[in-house]
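Aim 2, interim progress. The first record below pairs a target sequence with its structure tokens.
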Amino acid sequence: MKKSNRTERATSIRRSALAPVAPRLFVSSAHLMSAGSQQLSEFEFGLILAGNAFNRWVVRCMAAAGLKDMTTLEVLLLHHVHHRGREKKLADICFMLNIEDTHVVSYALKKLVAMKLVDGERRGKEVLFAASTTGQRYIERYREVREACLVAAIGKERTSNERLGELAAFLRFLSGMYDQAARAATSL
């Protein structure tokens, strides 16, 4: 190799080493990406990973609290039915959790009633649900496990609670955007 070729090659290597490197995007569906949606695709992949990790956590936390073989939905319903200590109607539960399929929620609530974790009381045409005393004990144990395993780990960073609050607001905003896009998609 000639000296001039080596010099050119070395110069080229130095330039490429100094050139900014485009960050690598982590996406699950690169075929959906366009120039205007790269960050959205990366966010959606992060959401998929976080959603699956959250689902796994909820089930394992409840198992550590003493209730094994529950689904994520059943755990979330138990928590929501107990929320604020007020009885709740099926429609209100579905609305609050943004679940369209009332049959899935109704089936899960029947399982929770059969497990004696939730009480269902018919009033006219409606059934009102509330956490039973047994359900409340498991919820308290879940809280203890959550504090020990998750809250303690997150609490080590001083600004984490503020950031989590900001992220929660952003996720609620995105929920509305996805709902609007879903409505738009049904008209296509």
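The second target in this work package is listed in the same format:
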Amino acid sequence: MAVSTSDRQLSGCYAHLACELDESLVGYVLRLAESNGYGSVSRFLQLLGLAGSAQLRRSLVILYSDREKLERLGRIGSGDPSQLLRFHAAPLPAPVAQAEALYWEERRVDVDAVLPVRAPVCPRCLDESSYAKESWDLAPVTVCLAHQIRLIDACPACESPVTANRLSLFHCDECGFDLRKASGPSVEQAVVDVCADFAALAPFRVRGLAGHVFTADWEEMFHVFKVLLLPAACWAEDNFPPAFVASSSLDQRHPAIEALAAARDGSSYDMSRLRDIVERALAPMAGLPLPTALHDAAYRFLAITVGVSPEMANAITRDTEPPEVARAAELYSGRPPVVPTPGDVECFLGVNSVDVARLFNLGVIAQPMEFHLGYDADDLLAARRFLGSLLGVDRLSDLVGVQVRDSDLHPDGLLPRWNPSNRSDARVAAERAIELQRALVVRWHQATRPQAATSLQELAKSVQRPCAMVTGVVREILLRSIVEFDWVAPFSWADIRLPTDSIDSIRSMGEA
């Protein structure tokens, strides 16, 4: 369009620049700031009423979602208020425990994926085109799609971060190195393909259980990418921070892209190829005397904490679909039995009144409403499953790694009886064992590994109360009194290894 003389003289910008079709909005602002002598992107953005350098990334996210500011920037930068409207993205509310997002190109895009704190560049593109590419603003894009080399986000000369707020598009702020002279390592085609898929902001084809292919939206696959960046302890902690990708370095993000490249098979992603990552993060969960504990924990984390679809969570964590829990109407041909009194509940479950009272107290069975004929049959079936999952001393011995006796179960100890009122029932709730094992996994990931170590299994041979010693050590680890230890397969508690020079104090825990 024709630009009038008055438009050419807009306040705040004397050198006008057109935004290239595949240019980054941030890179365009950097070119304008540099050409007009503003010194930094943050100072230039103050023309639009946006915050300074301390909140630069937040200001840039706001810029994407503010049509009026994009129009004003277009007028300031080139005299064309419509020039930058292709960048406009509507803000979207954040789901529970997840980051806010932008509605960008008809996709929900987690803002944690947009505008990394560092500003990756391709040296060859900078040299050939003299502007930053739009795809570089997406955190999962770690390679140049044109040249098939890794992007750089640190100066190769002085290792200073390359940021959007630098003084020059081409030079390092700290040492002045010309970024166009840097070189990035070449990457395999599969890695380029993964980055291209993310750059396209399009859905992904995913292969799930039994070879079933389904479609995952862009944000869901980005959340899988985020999971691959997480410290391993987060899997056991059920911790999925809503925002951490944008602040990571390219060196931290690229291995996650390589993992997805290894899962890419033709035009789809075989998510079962990520299972080894799951099993490494939660490996000690296999020490529980519960065959599906590890994969159940991984599924719970992905489906509930991260929020990916059940189909995606199953594809990553399991070989087969878990069996569905049959409801009473199905088991009893649509006519579940009426169980009107607590005494009838005792007969149905094969337990005494003390155990039934405990089931009520735990909320496994709900008290019927006044207008109900009796206790809910599905609650009673859940109570049967609960009772069947309780861990007796034999299975507890497998978990602890040494013999567990009835006398080792204490109301205030690590392994309390599921029903403290029933002294003849030496069983522990499975959820208690799972909770303890998960907490131990977290401490294991955080622990310092001893150079010379002795296993609790070995120490248990020379003490009078081996179970008391092992559980005592576990308690101290959970209380963070012991921070130096290792843990090896098969991951019973007695497989914990402690520094050899600490064995005398540890042995005393098992003395009478």
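Residues 125 and 131 are 8 Å apart (CA to CA). This observation will shape the mutagenesis plan for the next reporting period.
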